[in-house]
Amino acid sequence: MRFPIVLETMAQLGWPESSAVPLGIVLLIATLLYLVPRTSILGAVLLTGYLGGAIATHARIGSPLFTHTLFGVYVGIIMWTGLYLRDPILRSVFPAR
Question: Domain locations in the chain?
């Protein structure tokens, strides 16, 4: 689906329209991996990389720091905190003490 807002935003960020669908597919796959308990750590790692690309894109074009550029950091912190709270294996590797 080619939503006009997505195509406009892609143009503002300097991405070609043709990359919207592949980026969406990558995001969907990484999110599904994050949601499945057996693959959640892999999904979190992939989403962290994806968010890093978003941060780099916003830094490159000079977006506002706290509202746009660091938004990926905020999402990443929430994502990893949620995973830490729901995954006992991750808690055993990184104990809270």
Answer: 21-93
